[in-house]
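hey so i finally got around to running the thing on that chain from the lab meeting. sorry it took forever, my laptop kept dying and i had to restart like 3 times. anyway pasting the input first so we r on the same page abt which one it is
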Amino acid sequence: MEKVKVGIIGPGNIGQDLMVKIGRSRYMQLACVVNIVESPGLEKARALGVDASAGGVDYLVERHAQDIRIVFECTSAAAHLLNAPKLAAAGMFAVDLTPAAVGPYCVPAVNLNDELLKLSDVNLVTCAGQATVPIVHAINEVADVSYAEVVSSISSKSAGPGTRANIDEFTITTRKALERLGGADKAKVIIVLNPAEPPIFMRNTIYTRVKKADLEKIRQAVFDRLETVKKYVPGYRFLLEPIMHDDIVTVMVEVEGLGDFLPVYSGNLDIINAAAVHIGESKAKQILGVK
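ok and heres what got predicted. didnt touch it at all, straight out
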């Protein structure tokens, strides 16, 4: 089967994990990886027979404007603000894994559709957004969420320099996604970098205040949504199934990574990569005309 050629900007931990995941894809073929300095990630790409350069986005656009259709942005919010116009001008669909939010938020289990895939840029929100927005959205559909609060705990070992440099963007972007996509009237987000040994899996505690307190409907909605997310994130599961006290619903979800390039405790990185690949494959199928 013909495959759609794709590129990666930023071959750090996330970028190298994406190389493995894209390598398994039936619909995408990795054609170029770029960085702004020489790095082990570029060396890994070359070892895979992939064109790799420290020439950054300019190299990617100049060398591959005619063949690459999808690009995964794995750098930083500031970098993507500069890169996005260049990718759009080259006709490349950007899957943005930073909190830049140049394009609309996309959480596949909530709002991925053909119209979104026709745009030039979509944003993956954050790892916490990918893990919690589906649950808040599911609860809101049956119970009307007036307030959502998320506490996202990740292993400090899985929080790289990109995550640490974008903490403010992380919390703001996740909060906005809980409101805009999740449907909460108001939201708050807290991130915890946990130094525990052995490292913990990603854990997200979700509190929602609801206007229609029907626990059975809420349980059915969140269990259905769990199965939707698990189709592209197999390690997504409940640590605490929905419980209710007065009008407060509490749910806890845990994410275990696949262990491709990253350790299994890096579920925070794995979930955003899994969502990115799912979006990339959906776009590739749209390009190929495959259902």
